[in-house]
Amino acid sequence: MSAATAGWWRWLLGIDSIPEGAAGVRLGWEHPLPTWGWAIAIAAAVGLAWFGYARIQGPTTARVALGSLRAAAIAWLLAVLLGPELVLPRERIEPDRVAVVVDRSASLEVRDAPGGSSRDEQAREAVDLLAEALRSDERSHEVRWFGFHADAFPLEAADGAAPGLGAPEGARTRLGRAIERALRDAAERPIAAVVVASDGRTDDPPDRGLLRRLAEEGIPLIVVPLGSSEPLGDVAVAEARAPGRAFRDDEVPVEARISRVGRAGTEPVLVRLVDAEDGTVLAEQSVASESIGEPVVLLARAEDAGRRRWRVEVVAPGDDLVPANDSREVEVELLDRPLRVLFCDASPRWEYRYLKNLLVREPSVESSVMLLSADRDFAQEGNMPISRLPRSPEELAAYDLIVLGDVPGGFFSPEQLEMIREQVAARGAGLVVVAGPRNVPRGWERTALEELLPFAPPTPAVIDREVSLRATDLAARLGVVGADALPPVDAPWGRLRWAQRIDPATLKPAAEVLAETTEGDPILLRMRYGAGQVLYLATDETWRWRYGRGETLQERFWIPLLRLLGRESVAEGEAPWRLRAAPSRIALGEATRLELELGESRAMELDLASAEVSISRRGEEGSTTTIDLPRTAPGLHAASWIPDAPGEHLVEVSEPGLLRLGGRAGVLVEVTRADAEWRRPDADHELLASIAEATGGASFPPDQLGGIVQRIPNRSVVVSMPIIEPIWSSPLALLGALLLLTMEWIGRRLLRLA
What b/e string do you get for 436-447 counting C-beta neighbours within 10 Å, with b at 16 or more? Predict the structure, then answer.
């Protein structure tokens, strides 16, 4: 048919919507009649025509012809009244949806996938294969991609392509919540299946209600398990602590705790302390399998002063799930100045003589020695001689450490006693108390010094036998009272003939035992008091050890103890401010309190309404933020801070007015992950298999995703959308009726019937 002819026909039929040349066009009716209805209608038209011409005189042939035209005209008009229309059938398939949720939690950093790759690398390969398999499916599925950790979130993807995943940084995994969110966001259309690519490590597995709902609605969970199906286990440095400050040439104790989970083997683990700047191994220790979880103390000595960054590393035998948790860093500031000690005793007893000589002889100590029983002409000893006791807080503040022998409390004025207590509590000084048979602690009752004792009254009794000493585990962790600082327990010359029996029930809550008799009686006690520390020695007979080893044992016993108490007091007394974080180790989402304390004179001088501190995350450039600490009390600025990322955060004073005073004090806040999956990093494929089975789904290894489309049901819907063109009002309908009626009228005229 020519274009002109086709155009005439489209005009006659009044066609506007049906495309030209469209195939499959059929005739339809707006008000359709069944077949028997058409038969009755045609019979009625013929009957009317016959009734009109049956009694008319004329030739039979002519009357039949005219009756046929009338019947045709009636039928035509009836057809027009029934609404004839041209119909072009059209169908559209409404595709179902496949929701794919991909794990983006930090546990995907674990490298236990085949070939030693990480679970994240395995997930990326699986997503590419899954996108290709769904794209090749003959059925039309609309794929919605989601990432998830604490919640599900949409992933952008081009048509048919795999989405970009981003880094796996989620701190916790909530699989049940992620599936519910994916179902809710994809609910505009029928959901054929939910595909989950995960290692299964979650603290929120799908509950029974969700699994029952999926099973009832015919939505299978198809899981793609990531990671190793066999638990490998993990060895990690769970904790590392070091004193914030120490003296140059100190043996600095760094305490670490090693953890082991899963099938990490039973071989010993090597723990090393390494200088983070140059990689030098400072100390190392092999930890037996049965000792893992107990504190490990590594002693390191540094000759140069300044800030040092050390790293505790664990060398795991065999496979290790999370290399990222195999090390932790600590920071130590090494001070290069002598320790200033004030030593007071009532009489020149043997313990006084040997301890005084030790202080004078030690090059890292500057001492002022005051013998209270001496007359005025006695030349007081020490390399910083004094003629009287300090009478003001400023005079006492010149000392980092106070050593009191068997001094009666009444020798000091109440103001001096309170001054000593304040020096320890507020300024962070150390106090060493060496017990004596006359005055300590009996003479300190009901004085300010009684608060500083690590035990409550009554006065301890005397042990009625000779005793030998042994160090506790706490002493080893602090790096004091080592095995080379005590005589052998079976050596007669090493026994103490006088010592106090301190009832353990009277120990104050903050008291700790560093050394005890072989029978378990506490002899050497340590207690924190405010910003400082107190050390109490319940004997005055360490001088007896000279009989076996000369003065070597006394030096090894006393010098580390004095340095232990002096480390914090040196920095506390010299810093223009004190910046603290409590607690300094928190879980992600928890808060720590930052406090900046200024001395009274500094606070009055600066009069700051708020002080600014900066917070930076170690190992991440551009992560520095600043917060203001409002003034909460005279000389005290404080605020709570909630970190938003795990890791080590360095908090430093950045207030210009404070920085002009000198120094840049900072504290480290360690933020750990709060999620359970890092405590158990093994993959949980059993959980994934169980939820797939509960919903009628299946489990597909990442390298076998080609057959996944056979397990996805077809829930697409066929939608009919035909093009309908009504022709009852077309020119053809009108012309047909006119033509039939005109032909009948002409026939009647010719037969002279009109």
Answer: beebbbbbbeeb
